[in-house]
Write a structure and sequence with these properties.
Order of helices and strands: EHEHHEEHHHE
Protein name: DUF1877 family protein
Strand content: 15-25%
Number of helices: 6
Strand order of the largest sheet: 2-1-5-4-3
Oligomer: single chain
Low-confidence stretches: none
Organism: Streptomyces griseomycini
Number of strands: 5
Number of domains: 1
Shape: globular
Length: 144
């Protein structure tokens, strides 16, 4: 389980990778969360928003690792273009529905995420993605 989860906007993979050791707060606009697995979450969100299958996304190596080792150290990964587009275009009601569905999925696995908190996470992330896209940037996630 992650201690720190920060989604952030950056111009490219190379810029995003530079935050591996220190985190993105000093360099980029970011959102900070905690206590959920963001790698699993972005795959679940893409399934909810875009109708992709979990297994297909995992087989396609989503989310795409940008920096670090996935061995309990810090990592930076990219939010897929498909998920970015879906979040940027999502209506408030779609974000709420996805948040409730995600909350229920996590509960089935024994992880408690309040639906209101899930909605806040998805709404804030959608706003970050929309802002990043307007600036020609991508959204990444730093996990420590």
């Amino acid at each position: 389980m992650s201690i720190i989860v920060e989604f952030f906007a950056a111009p490219d993979d190379a810029s995003a990778a530079l935050v591996l050791r220190t985190g993105p707060r000093r360099a980029f606009e970011s959102l900070s969360f905690g206590n959920f697995d963001p790698g699993e979450a972005v795959v679940e969100w893409e399934c909810l928003f875009a109708g992709a299958s979990f297994d297909q996304l995992v087989e396609a190596d989503e989310p795409r690792l940008v920096a670090g080792q996935d061995d309990d150290g810090c990592v930076v990964f990219a939010i897929s273009p498909c998920l970015s587009a879906a979040l940027a275009e999502a209506e408030r009601s779609e974000l709420k529905d996805a948040a409730v569905a995600w909350s229920f999925q996590r509960a089935e696995d024994g992880e408690v995420i309040d639906p209101e908190i899930a909605e806040a996470i998805l709404s804030d992330l959608a706003a970050l993605v929309s802002s990043a896209r307007r600036q020609g940037q991508n959204v990444y996630c730093w996990v420590a």
